[in-house]
Amino acid sequence: MVMGKAKLSKPLIFQSKLLCISLLYLITTLFVALYTSIYPTKCLFRSSPFDPIQTPFFSYPSSYGEHKYVIPTHRSSCSSPIYFSGTTSYLLLLLDYWMVLKEILQLCQNSSVSSHALRYMKGNSKNFGGNFSTQKRISYFDLLNDSVEVPCGFFKRFPVSDSDRMAMESCHGVVVVSAIFNDHDKIRQPKSLGSKTLDNVCFFMFVDDITLKGLDHHEVISRNSHEYSVGVWRIIEVSSKDLYDNPAMNGVIPKYLVHRLFPNSKFSIWVDAKLQLMVDPLILIHALVVSEKVDMAISKHPFFTHTMEEALATARWKKWKDVDGLRNQMETYCENGLQPWTPKKPYPSDVPDSALILRKHGLNNNLFSCLVFNELEAFNPRDQLPFAYVRDRMKPKLKLNMFEVEVFEQVALEYRHNLKKDGTAGAGGIPSSKRVSNDLYINSSCCSKCHDYLLEMWGESHN
Description:
The chain is 33% helix and 12% strand. By secondary structure, it is α/β, with parallel strands linked by helices. The strands form three sheets. It has an eight-stranded mixed β-sheet with strand order 5-6-4-3-7-10-9-11. A two-stranded parallel sheet has the order 1-2. Helix 2 (90-110) packs across helix 9 (281-290). The N and C termini lie far apart (100 Å).
C-alpha cells in the first residue's frame, strides 16, 4: 500500500520473457500437432524462410505476360510432408533458414570439387559431344579408377562471352540454372527467397539469339548492353548456330553439364523455364539432398513407372517425331541390359519428371550427368529415356532421392510453353494435344529385342 492506494503488479507468469516464449511455443506446437493429427496428409513444406524478400525482383512490361498459362494441379494434399529439423512451430521455423544457410555454407567451404572430380576427355570435333558409338559409351559406365578420362561434351567451344564465362567460374556455392531456346518460355522470378539467399546463390539463365530478340521486343532487356540481367537472373547469351540444330538439345547442355559450366559450384538446381520456383533454393537443397545424404534429388513422373511407358507415349504423342530412331534407342537399351521396373529395384520408379533436378556435385553425380548427356546426343533430347538405363548400369552407384509428385507441386508452379499464332508450342512446332497414329511397338512385335521387357512390363508370360 502506498498513499492509501493498492499498487497492481503484473502476474508472475508475465514477468518472465523466457516463460512467455516457452508457453507460446508450447501452444503453437500443440495446435500444429492437433491439426496434423486431424489432417495427416496435409503438406507442410516450409516455403517462407525468416525475413523473406518482399519487394519484386523485376517489373515486367505488361506485353510480356510472364504469368500466362499456369497449369493447375489437382492434388490438394501431400503424402510425403517435408519437415526441417523435425520442427513444427513457427518460432523454430524462424531459425530453420539460418541453420540451413550456415550448414550449406560450411559444406561449401569444407568441400573441394577437385578432390573428387572426374577427368574429362579433351579433343576437337565438329560435334559438341563427340558422337561416340554404343559400345564406346558403355565402356565408361563402370569407372574402375579415377585416372580414366570420361567423354563429357565440350569437344568444341561452348559459345559464350569471356565475361560470362568468368562469372560462371566465380560461382563457388549453390547455382540455380535454367535455359530458354527458340523463345520457348518466359523468364519468371523465384519466390520466397530468404534475405541472404541472393548473397550466396547464383542464378543463371541461358538463352539463344531468338529468345534475346523476344526479350528486346518486349523491352525486358536492352540489346545495347553487353551484359544482361532480368531480376535475379543473369542472362547468358549462347550462339546456338555453333551448337546443335535442335534447340531442345542445346538446352540439354546446361541441364546435364552444369558441373562443367560451373566447375567451382558445390550444389546446383536445374529449373525448367516452364517452372517458377516457390521455395528458397537453399531450403530445397538442404531438405532434398543434404538431409537425405544423396547425390541427386528428382521427382517421380506423375504417370509412368517404366521407361518403355515413356517411350511409347513419346512416339504416340509425337514428342519426338523420329519414331524409327526411338525404336532403335529402346532396342539398344534392351539389348544392353535395360529391365522394367520392379519392387526389387532400390528406386521407386524408372521414370523421373526432370523439370527440377537438385544435385550435389561430386564423382557419382558428375559421372551420371556425363553418361546421360552422351546418350542424349546419340539419340534425342528426351532425357527420361536413358535415365534408368544409365542409373542402373553405372558404377559407382548414384545415391538418388526420387521424391513424390506432390512435393514437386508444392515447390514449383508449372506454366505452359509459349504459344505461337498457329497454336503450336514455341520450339519444335508440336501440337499440344493432337494424338498421332505412329506407335513404337504395334501388337508387341514378336522379334524385337524389347519383347521380354514388354511382356514383363505387361505381366505376361515369357513363354
